[in-house]
Amino acid sequence: MIVEYIRYQIPADQSEAFEAAYTRAAVPLSRAPQCVDYELSRCVDDPESYVLRIVWTSATDHTAGFRGSANFTEFLAEIRPYIPVIQEMRHYNRTKVHGSGASVPSMYEWAGGAEAFERLTEAFYREVLKDDLLEPMFGHMHPDHPKFVAMWLAEVFGGPDHYTTERGGYPHMLSMHLGKAITEPQRRRWINLLASAADEVGLPDDPEFRAAFMGYIEWGTRLAKGNSQPDAKPFEQAPVPHWGWGVAPPYRG
């Protein structure tokens, strides 16, 4: 993830209109899958100074994904009058210096990073190749297919954007499903085997992680099944989805 800071100097007689504009602009911003969090703050010591903080899934998702979307067009229409008074607009990487409760780890970090997802997919595809429903679909897969899927899952859950930069991102993943006509029994078997593999390799089993993890797997497999049908007309251009904790972040006492 990346943090963007935008600093404004707003004359006192424009502050009410400025905050109203950002209230409206927050609607498309909150819809954007690339936006993780945002906050507009006003300086107590200098009330004409404002700072907008936006947490993006990545700098690329912001500059290429969000800025190329209809959400950005709607967002820009609201804040355009204030662009001339921007004093700073830059991306920052978070450091490890923060308070104990200031940062919730990503699901990627909680799972154990890239190595954990590689263990998961290696174990999973070993069982897939033994399965009567799934083997016909994966029997001739590329030897590195498990590693590629691990790369996808890592990016989905907050890790590096290697699937986007090295594998072609969402359009490439979509191409892997087109025309496959995945059935509901195959989808459910895929979920069951992945859940078993998660247990086998020791993926975190706390309820918060597993609920969020399996929530994505349920969502993603339903999307893949729909996109694989002969009459499907899926969106061809989209960012890699980014999945977080939802309503239940990890409990750390």
How would you describe what is shown here?
With 253 residues, this protein is α+β, with helices and mostly antiparallel strands. It folds into 2 domains: 2-92, 2-Layer Sandwich (Alpha-Beta Plaits); 107-227, Globins (Globin-like). The protein has helices spanning 15-31, 59-65, 70-79, 107-111, 114-128, 135-138, 145-156, 162-167, 169-175, 184-200, 207-227; strands at residues 2-9, 35-42, 49-56, 86-92. The chain has a 4-stranded antiparallel beta sheet. α5 crosses α10 and α10 runs antiparallel to α11 (207-227). The chain is elongated, with a radius of gyration of 21 Å. The model has no long low-confidence stretch (mean pLDDT 91).
List the helices and strands and how they pair.
Elements: E1 2-9, H1 15-31, E2 35-42, E3 49-56, H2 59-65, H3 70-79, E4 86-92, H4 107-111, H5 114-128, H6 135-138, H7 145-156, H8 162-167, H9 169-175, H10 184-200, H11 207-227
Antiparallel strand pairs: 1-3, 1-4, 2-3
